[in-house]
Amino acid sequence: MNCEEMSAHLIDLLQGELPPDLLAATRQHLQACPCCTALQMSFMGVRALVHRSMETPLTAAERAQLAETVLSAISLEDPGVGARPDPMTRPR
Predict the structure, then answer these.
(1) Each residue of 49-83: pLDDT tens digit?
(2) Which of 21, 23, 37, 81 has the fewest CB atoms within 10 Å, measured from its CB?
(3) What is the 3-state secondary structure (H, E, C) of the chain?
């Protein structure tokens, strides 16, 4: 399994919905790939914050942390996402 395949199966992995053959392959990949492990941990952190926010409202600091975690997880998948445009240039 490569990083792209791992990324495609990450949500199913976190929800416990992977078939045994894919589960074994993703676990093996995660043991060898620190980038995918970081992505998995980011998604787990987001999921935990979302579940917690459903129980009690988030503080301003927790909302900021959630936004940062989401943007970080997205940028791990696509480094161009979340990049801020240069305010001195006009869109074409």
Answers:
(1) 777 777 777 788 988 888 888 787 777 655 554 44
(2) 21
(3) CCHHHHHHHHHHHHCCCCCHHHHHHHHHHHHHCHHHHHHHHHHHHHHHHHHHHHHCCCCHHHHHHHHHHHHHHHHHHCCCCCCCCCCCCCCC
